[in-house]
Specification:
The complex is a heterodimer of chains A (about 270) and B (about 230).
Chain A (H helix, E strand, L loop, with lengths): L8 E6 L8 H9 L19 E6 L9 E6 L14 H5 L5 E4 L4 E4 L9 H5 L6 E2 L26 E2 L5 H13 L15 H5 L5 E5 L6 H5 L5 E2 L11 E4 L3 H6 L11 H9 L1
Chain B lengths: L1 H12 L13 H34 E4 L7 H7 L22 H8 L7 H11 L21 H7 L5 H4 L11 E4 L6 H4 L19 H12 L11
Antiparallel strand pairs in B: 1-2
Classes of the chains: A alpha+beta (about 270), B mainly alpha (about 230).
């Protein structure tokens, strides 16, 4: 039942390359008018569409290893990619929606009334709530991107895979009379992917064999987070280190690393 | 006299426990009651309708004049490429919208006609190197992404299909701004009930339902939220 020919945008992040520099987060803040506070020390109420987590193998020196894990919205397709994402299926306002033409989970701020049910449903903490109206220091308001609407107090926001860039790329395609053809791989790239100095992030159409992500996601070391939940995320991670791959899911002690991924693949 | 006496007599004997029958209606007051109620109902209804359909829109919308009254008809005779001469697509497919001074000063570096508005434009804007703060009738709210490229290039629509036949206008329309939302009245439409269709040559209403209705008719579906929202 999976629509293999439909465009399905996704991301592959190579955790062996990620240095945890946070350039993706900065780029995202700037690109998407993400509000911030003067004091961001309380991470519980800070807003970010992509967040770099630090995980550790929790072994004593000299075996200690750390890994940085950038987490945008996973744009879950649900079982069989029917759009039954955890957040979409619970939203009582239809403020979040699964776009079948791109596989992107949308968030319409003017439709959201802030019940935060989607935040409870999301297993990846990808969604953030605006507890306050955004306050832009100085004349920063003049530097906001006109392509992304600023959010108001009382609504939930999340990563959109920089959907406005897709819209602008489509505009150019219409102008040049090639809107019937699929967009080129480089025409539409999110800000975080473009900003990554280590080249750890790759973005493209997961169903298009010409796109790099199509090959990368088939890497034997590729995995997705919490695959046991069958959310069918569109963000893949690659790590050569077994403990990192094992940290990506809730493995029971007797389960072999990768067994959940294989079980999920059989299910789909 | 006699009837009331009989009632009293019945009550005193205790044989008739039923309550006293109502007194005979006073013919003058009670016969008029339905008319009085009817009068106030109709007066209230008419008053509400007048308030809702006439006074409320007058209060809700402020009326502003464009800084310069622009004569589209005169310019349409002089340019070669129709609307796109001034309202053009940029190379990246985005739509330029309202033109800035750079489009105008080729002809209007100095006043060339006898029009007062042109003179005003040259002295107040070109000479002082200021842009004209045009009031945009079809400006959508911040959360809307509208692709002119998809409609004009993709679907081959004429500008006039949504904006009305602007090319024949000899002066700028009054700009009506919703005092509560700050949006142009063109978005809601000039019929406060939103019934009926705009007159020939007038702009179409531009609310989300209007978009959805046309998309349903032309493409068979209303489209996903993200298609038009940002």
């Amino acid at each position: 039942m999976t629509q293999t020919n439909a465009t399905k945008y996704g991301m592959v992040i190579d955790l062996d390359k990620c240095t945890g520099c946070g350039a993706c987060m900065v780029a995202c803040y700037s690109e998407n008018n993400v509000p911030f506070k003067k004091d961001e020390s309380n991470k519980l109420d800070s807003i970010n569409w992509i967040r770099v987590f630090k995980i550790s193998n929790r072994k004593p020196y000299p075996d200690t290893e750390v890994c940085y894990l950038p987490m945008p919205c996973m744009h879950c397709g649900g079982i069989g990619d029917h759009g039954h994402s955890p957040c979409v299926s619970v939203c009582p306002a239809t403020a979040t929606d699964y776009d079948h033409s791109t596989g992107i989970v949308s968030q319409i701020y003017t439709r959201c009334f802030g019940c935060r049910y989607c935040m409870a449903a999301c297993p990846y903490h990808a969604r953030k709530f605006n507890w306050w109206d955004p306050v832009w220091p100085g004349d920063m308001e003049k530097y906001l991107s006109p392509n992304v609407s600023a959010r108001m107090r009382g609504v939930v926001e999340k990563c959109s895979f920089c959907f406005h860039r897709y819209q602008l790329a489509k505009d150019r395609a219409y102008h040049e009379g090639r809107h019937q053809e699929p967009l080129g791989e480089n025409e539409y790239q999110p800000a975080c992917v473009e900003s990554c100095p280590a080249g750890a992030m790759t973005f493209g159409d997961l169903n298009n064999p010409k796109h790099a992500v199509y090959t990368l996601k088939k890497n034997p070391h590729a995995f997705r987070l919490l695959e046991r939940l069958q959310t069918n995320p569109k963000v893949y991670y690659i790590s050569s280190r077994e403990w990192v791959r094992r940290a990506g899911d809730n493995y029971l002690s007797h389960e072999e690393t990768g067994s959940i991924k294989r079980a999920a693949a059989n299910h789909h | 006299m006699s009837t009331t006496d009989q009632h009293h007599a019945a009550a005193e004997t205790g044989q008739d426990k039923t309550p006293l029958p109502p007194a005979e209606p006073k013919p003058t007051a009670d016969e008029n009651t339905p008319w009085i109620i009817g009068f106030f109902f109709v007066a209230g209804l008419v008053g509400s309708l007048i308030f809702g359909w006439i006074i409320f829109p007058e209060l809700l919308y402020s009326k502003k004049q464009q800084p310069i009254s622009f004569n589209h008809a005169v310019h349409m005779d002089l340019v070669y490429d129709g609307c796109a001469s001034c309202h053009y697509f940029r190379d990246d497919g985005s739509f330029s919208g309202l033109p800035d001074n750079s489009s105008c000063i080729d002809c209007h570096q100095v006043a060339m006609g006898v029009s007062e508005d042109e003179e005003k434009y040259v002295t107040e804007y070109v000479d002082q190197n200021r842009e004209v703060p045009w009031l945009s009738h079809p400006r959508q709210p911040d959360c809307v992404f509208f692709s002119h490229a998809a409609h004009v290039k993709g679907a081959g629509m004429d500008c006039a299909e949504c904006h009305g036949d602007v090319s024949k206008r000899t002066e700028s329309r009054v700009y009506q701004e919703n005092r509560l939302s700050g949006y142009s009245r063109d978005i809601w439409g000039y019929s406060i009930s939103r019934l009926g269709k705009p007159a020939e040559g007038e702009p179409k209403t531009m609310k989300m339902n209007d978009c959805a209705r046309c998309h349903q008719a032309e493409t068979g579906h209303k489209g996903a939220c993200f298609q038009c929202h940002k």
